[in-house]
Amino acid sequence: MNKQEVFNRVVVHLLKQGKQAILPDSTAPVLMCAYRGKDGLKCAVGCLIPDEEYMPSFEGCSLERVRSLSRTLQSMNGKLLKHLQYVHDSVKPGYWYEELKEAAECFQLTMPTVREKGE
Questions:
Q1: Could you read off the pLDDT of 50-60 as tens digits, one per residue?
Q2: What range does the domain containing 89 cover?
Q3: In a domain, 71, yes or no
């Protein structure tokens, strides 16, 4: 996938999902985001990992480590993936649209047309 295709897939995924993917057993005061979380939720990078490449051992690993183990992610722009992961992990879901719109400008991409969850 090229950068625009990656961006489109992640934007549509995050805005339709509308909440962060967190580890199923996350009870810490600060929730730990997951590539694949409870209730079938996936983070910005997790939604790009094909089921046959995903391993539960990815959880808690850096993006760089997971990219080194996933052929699919290796072919994608690392800076874009890192930024999309930041949006999922560090920005409250209610602000994702604005953050993703800014990311589109930063990476010279087009913001896909998608309705946020609840609209």
A1: 999 999 999 98
A2: 3-106
A3: yes
